[in-house]
Amino acid sequence: MMQRVLAAMAGGFMGLMISGPALAGTVTSDGADLILKTKGGFEVTTADGDYSFKVGGRLMLDYNAYDGVINTVEGQTGSDIWFRRARLEIKGKAKDWSYLMSYNLTGSGSIDQLHASYNGFGKMTVLTMGQQKEGFGLDDTGSSKWITGIERALASDAFDTGNNVGLKLHGGNDAISYSLGVYKESIDADDNALDTGVTGRIVYRPIIDDDLLVHLGAGFTARDGEFDSLGARLGVRGGEDRTANRSRVRYAGGLSGDEQQSYNLEAAATFGQAHIQAEYFSSEVSGATAPDLEADGYYLQLGWVLTGENRGYKNGAGVFDKIKPSGPGGAWEVFARYDAFNVDGAEADPAITVEGGDATVITLGANWYINSNAKLSLNYVSSETDQLINGEDDGDAIVARLQFAF
């Protein structure tokens, strides 16, 4: 009996994998024929391409060992092994509509993204509604799966707009990508800081071909709400019990600003197996009864793919994508990044507290793209601040990550 059941199941799976009319006794459909795809996730799509449904996700298991200013406890070292991200993703399309649902499985669980898009106007005019990335900066707009460093650059973290609920108009072709949206606080906000925000970004590619890409961009965000600080993590993120320190400037005595404006410039290029990218950010918090908080930051990143592959790129979003290995041994990449975060004259005002102040981070790293789904990364991080945090003004970290994205 069991043998007959197994044989029937095997016949059903074989029928699903055959392109063409469904076989009797296996799968039936009252519409177009179905095609089953298992590369990079589990996807079912109709033969005419009008409908699709895909289940995917990402698992990122990190090991961190850090000391000095990066640690939260003076004079101690810290280490963690933990899931930096564990997300389940469901996405698909129904004719002119597409959707994405992404849920964080770590901690108490939370919604990462939940939105629908109307694509009927064409690739240059897509309308997305729901909780989504605002799209501010190159490093932050790109997926966490395929950024070069284990963590994003110091300045990208400092001025991150996060994922919020809103309405965004966006699109792209070979030469130009853009996005413009209006947002309110996210579904799972830890604080109720953001009342409304307007965020825009534009990218121009004067050169784009297989071996040479030049990327130039700019962005802005203007936000109303309740804001009390500007700051950035010092290059490392630990587990729930050990979160790395920040260099930041903030209000004292319970003050807060009610407006925040941030701007950025971005530039990047790929030259065959070499790639370079840089960004500059500037931000100010202001309010009727609070003095201005001002900070800026920048980074420069250089990378080289030792095995000769090119770094992927997505024209529609204007972001870099994964490196696809060309051989059975995978693809190897090395990189270096210099980050800086600067506080502008805040120490002179008694209503403002400076923690760490100006900060720099140097990151050296290597990535092994084992295949199209798996990636192993190792980073060395060195951080310095011009003022003490918990009695320290410098620190080092070794960070490793095993990632599986499907």
List its salient traits.
single chain; 406 residues; mainly beta; Porin; 16-stranded antiparallel β-barrel; 3-stranded antiparallel beta sheet; 23 strands; globular; disordered N terminus
Give an overview in words:
- This protein is mostly beta strands and 406 residues long.
- It has a single domain, classed as Beta Barrel (Porin), CATH 2.40.160.
- Helix content is 6%, strand content 57%.
- The strands form three sheets. Strands 3-4-5-6-7-8-9-10-11-14-15-16-19-21-22-23 form a 16-stranded antiparallel barrel. The protein has a three-stranded antiparallel beta sheet with strand order 12-13-20. Strands 17-18 form a two-stranded antiparallel sheet.
- It is globular, with a radius of gyration of 23 Å.
- The relative contact order is 0.15.
- The N terminus is likely disordered.
Number of helices: 3
Portion in beta strands? over 45%
Strand order of the largest sheet: 3-4-5-6-7-8-9-10-11-14-15-16-19-21-22-23
CATH fold type:
Porin
* Overall outline: globular
Task: Kindly summarize this structure in a few lines.
By secondary structure, the protein is mainly beta. It has helices at 2-17, 138-141, 154-158; strands at 34-37, 42-46, 51-66, 78-94, 97-104, 110-118, 126-133, 163-172, 176-184, 194-208, 212-227, 229-233, 246-251, 257-271, 274-286, 293-305, 313-314, 319-320, 331-343, 352-355, 359-369, 374-389, 392-405.
